[in-house]
Amino acid sequence: MQRFLLTIACIVMLAVPAQSASRIKDIADFEGIRDNQLIGYGLVVGLQGTGDSLNNAPFTRQSLQAMLERLGVNTNEVDLNTDNTAAVMVTANLPPFATQGTRIDVTVSALGDADSLQGGTLLVTPLMGADGEAYAIAQGPVAIAGFEAQGDAASITRGVPTAGRIANGALVEREVDFKLATLRNVRIALRNPDLTTARRVAIAVNELIGLPTAEPLDPGTVQLSLPNGFNGNIVDLLTDIEQLLVEPDQPAKIVIDESSGIIVMGQQVKVSTVAVAQGNLTVTISESPEVIQPNPFANGQTAVQPRTDLEVTEDSTQLAVVDETITLQELVDGLNALGIGPRDLISILQAIKASGALQAEIEVL
């Protein structure tokens, strides 16, 4: 019973009930409505001796000197020796259509050999996009989720003390120039490309408008055009379209994570009638060396006599027949009837696929 429950727990079944529809906004993205990634390099100050060692991190020394010189402090003839500063990389996601003055969260990660960013404050750091332009400015106290404590003979670390976040730590200074309302055509990108799903999305949109407005271009793209005489712009049209219900189609696929023994099966997985036998060969080797002492007053030495016990056990399993299944539940029940674990299920599924009896794609992570 324990083996059966373990098998059930390690098989994640994505068996979606029939006729389960989803909103278009949950299965697709609209062109232009997307985040933009930002990155910057800065300094965190105010650390309690847990920052970078300037001898091992020359970029921290150079950045610190350049910052002080911009503030009017001459450090050319000064030997900087502080461990309260750390060089960090700052990353953030710029939300779509973020306006000037909007605040966004940033992530701060140590770049040098700093031990912890706890208690530190990020100095003004420009965040740049892929085009090299600065879109936001970050600054503020760093909050970390981990900590590190140590004594003379022991230390403990929980979480990652060299990375943290600043909630609302950046101000948007530059907007992305994209005017969605002026577009006449917009592409709808499916998150899981599929020919059938793309066609169903186009049909649902055309039925709503009453005109051939949407056209599937490929498995992942549906072209949407603003119809002539429409009372509104493309934003009004997308607002109505994203609420439409569409039943996405799924290919028959089995995803296997061999490192953790997890199996994920899609609803459309089918298997033809096939016979399966599974057996385990267990080899047990135990060592019990015996110490041999010389006789009293004998001119001899103590010796160790090796003793090895070897045992071979083979679990015999009869040939079982897994009938042709209609549903995923019947397939799983048929495999569980063999009384095997998740690791063996992975090998059996791969063997069934090799025999041609499994009508599904197997993806190994």
UniProtKB/TrEMBL annotation:
Lipid biosynthesis listed as a keyword: no
Location(s) in or outside the cell: Bacterial flagellum basal body
A cellular component term, taken from the record's GO annotations: bacterial-type flagellum basal body, distal rod, P ring
Record keywords, A-Z: Bacterial flagellum, Cell projection, Cilium, Flagellum, Periplasm, Signal
GO molecular function, one term: structural molecule activity
Entry's Gene Ontology BP terms: bacterial-type flagellum-dependent cell motility
Residue ranges that the Swiss-Prot or TrEMBL entry lists as coiled coil: none
Superkingdom of origin organism: Bacteria
Signal peptide segment: 1-20
Xref: PANTHER family: FLAGELLAR P-RING PERIPLASMIC PROTEIN FLGI, FLAGELLAR P-RING PROTEIN
Family membership noted in the UniProt record: Belongs to the FlgI family.
Biological function: Assembles around the rod to form the L-ring and probably protects the motor/basal body from shearing forces during rotation.
Subunit structure, as described in the record: The basal body constitutes a major portion of the flagellar organelle and consists of four rings (L,P,S, and M) mounted on a central rod.
Protein name as catalogued: Flagellar P-ring protein
Species of the source: Pseudovibrio exalbescens
Gene from which the chain derives: flgI
